[in-house]
Amino acid sequence: MVVGICGGSASGKSTFSRSLLEHLSDLGPEILNQDRYFRDWLDYPSGDRERVRTSNHPRAVLWDSLIHQVRRLIGGHCVQEPVPGTAAFQRIIERRVIKPGRLLIVEGHLIFSNADLRDHMDLKIYLDVDAHERVLRRMLRDTASETTTLDQASAWYRRDVIPNFEVHTVATRKYADLVVPYEMDVGAATHVIASGIRGLVAC
């Protein structure tokens, strides 16, 4: 079974996904994180890369690679990530072998924008968080390591997130089977969703 978890930047997708994994550990669940498939932009001349670079428009994702790996896992095959052509691969992150199980979670803020990927999802969940709360979370997260200043984080948010969020993330909320408000603790909702997933896997 493939479950898609979408929502705006800093909406809690990774936390929610990990919580589901804990509830459903006996199903051998795995997570594919859309961010690991962000392109490295090296196919653009160096002078153009900063101008075209984005992480909030669908062109940022190597969809063919992501969908290929989803299909392989559905078919019972192992995959490795990160894949060539991605920013993660460029940073020489240790390659991770992902084994097929009975449950695959695909999470990311752009995953519902791709029709081919949506077609592989048995359940689509959208995490709905107030915009002010998301911005606060994002600013705190981006500046926590002290490698990014508040001015830099704010400039990127204005340049990339604001123009793309409504078009490429919020607009895909309509494809969700479930919309979960995710501003406070959602332990009860997570338990109910995990029980539902377990029931669907058993069918």
Your description of this structure?
By secondary structure, the chain is of the alpha/beta class. It has one domain (2-202): P-loop containing nucleotide triphosphate hydrolases (Rossmann fold, 3-Layer(aba) Sandwich), CATH 3.40.50.300. Helix content is 42%, strand content 15%. The chain contains 8 helices and 7 strands, in the order βαβααβαββαβααβα. The protein has helices at 13-23, 46-52, 63-74, 87-90, 115-118, 131-143, 150-168, 187-202, and strands spanning 2-7, 30-33, 79-81, 96-98, 104-107, 123-128, 178-181. A 5-stranded parallel β-sheet has the order 2-5-1-6-7, with helices on both faces. A two-stranded antiparallel ribbon has the order 3-4. Helix 1 (13-23) packs across helix 8. The termini are close together. The mean pLDDT is 91.
